[in-house]
Amino acid sequence: MPSVEIVVAIARNFVIGKDKKIPWHLSDDLKHFKAVTVPHPIVMGRRTFESVGRVLPQRENVVVTRAADLGVHDEHLHLVPSLQAAIELFKDSEKIMITGGFALYKEALALTDVIHLTRINRDFEGDTFFPDFSHLNFRLENKTEHFAPDLECSYSFETWVR
To answer: What SUPFAM superfamilies does this protein map onto (predicted)?
Structure first.
């Protein structure tokens, strides 16, 4: 059974999205996302896949959806009906990375071993939020602090484990 790991960037007010987009641009976070997820399978919901707009290279892309076809055909794109089906599909992988959105994060939290969290120390307007995980016995294992001049705030890369 693979380790189930969440990768997420959140604002101080737990916002993760607005109008199907991330409401900030932080190039260091995109590099961090790639470093954490390559070469592991990434699992996302349909709306997250549509907001990304393409199959991300160097990893298998798994979309949890009831749709039979998303109009994109790629050997590295897999459509599955559930999170459990995604885990079963890649049961021999070392890790499976959950990359959003809200419903998938909420479902996956109960199964998650590690959360790779980018915390933006500023509030943003949004319509999608990361679920509260404070009651789930995760502990902060690692944290590195940085500053984003473009966002005029600090941010941190955090690793939470249980």
So the answer is: Dihydrofolate reductase-like (SSF53597)
Residue in 85, 84, 56, 83 with CA at minimum distance from that of residue 72: 56
Q: How many of the other CB atoms lie within 10 Å of CB of 63?
A: 24
Domain total of the chain:
1
Tens-level pLDDT at each residue, the chain (162 residues): 899 999 999 999 999 999 989 999 999 999 999 999 999 999 999 999 988 889 999 999 999 998 877 778 889 999 999 999 999 999 999 999 999 999 999 999 999 999 999 999 999 999 999 999 999 999 999 999 999 999 999 999 999 999
Judging by DSSP bridges, how do beta strands 114-120 and 3-11 pair with one another? parallel
Instruction: Please report, for the domain that includes residue 131, its CATH number.
Output: 3.40.430.10
DSSP structure class, residue 21:
B
Q: CA 23, CA 17: separation in Å to the nearest integer?
A: 6
DSSP H/E element including 127: none
Containing domain of residue 52, as a range? 3-161
